[in-house]
Amino acid sequence: MKNINYQKIILSTIAITGLVGMAVLAPNALQSLKMFLPKKKGWSKEKYYMNNSVKTLLKKGLIKKVKKGSVEFIELTKKGREMISQYELEEIEIEKPKNWDKKWRVIIFDIPEKKKRLRELLRHNLDRLGFIKLQNSVWVLPYECEELIFLLKTNFFADEDVLYMEVNRIENEEWLKEVFGLTK
């Protein structure tokens, strides 16, 4: 039970379906949990964890209640969409080709202080994906990653703040080649 991320399952369910009815949320989310849980009679513990997770997500501002007529729904907030994006990005990895095309992929960004959380998320993801930091807002990788950077920019709503470049040479690049194992 400890290894199941109920909040992630709930957020993912809402992200896929859009609005989710309050009365419908628990059964649908519990259906998606079946693949992660051992076969048991009853769902009392799972329902308890699911309900607590919904309350926690509401408190954290990741989801909000919306009333349409007499039916109450739950939908993702902007903060919740950012969290889903983070979950998705954690599963992505960059493929390393057999032969390097001798191009550097450089990411530069200028994210204002009011978006500090976004800036830190971006740095965390670039580091996790194997980029090397040249300066605080300048990161480099020798592998094709334009689509991934587009995804990062889109998911973090940072299209204007992040710039992707492909360059043929970086001054004093020998140390970078060593770090990436590109020297022969």
TrEMBL record:
GO biological process: DNA-templated transcription; maintenance of CRISPR repeat elements
Start and end residues of each Transcriptional repressor PaaX-like central Cas2-like domain: 98-168
Keyword vocabulary terms for this entry: Antiviral defense, Endonuclease, Hydrolase, Magnesium, Membrane, Metal-binding, Nuclease, Transmembrane, Transmembrane helix
Alphabetized Gene3D superfamilies for the sequence: 3.30.70.2650
InterPro entries recorded: CRISPR_associated_Cas2, PaaX-like_central
GO molecular function: RNA endonuclease activity
Transmembrane segments: 6-30
PANTHER family noted in UniProt: PHENYLACETIC ACID REGULATOR-RELATED TRANSCRIPTIONAL REPRESSOR (PTHR30319), TRANSCRIPTIONAL REPRESSOR PAAX (PTHR30319:SF1)
Protein's name in the database: CRISPR-associated endonuclease Cas2
Species this chain originates from: Candidatus Campbellbacteria bacterium RIFOXYC2_FULL_35_25
Source lineage: Bacteria, Candidatus Campbelliibacteriota
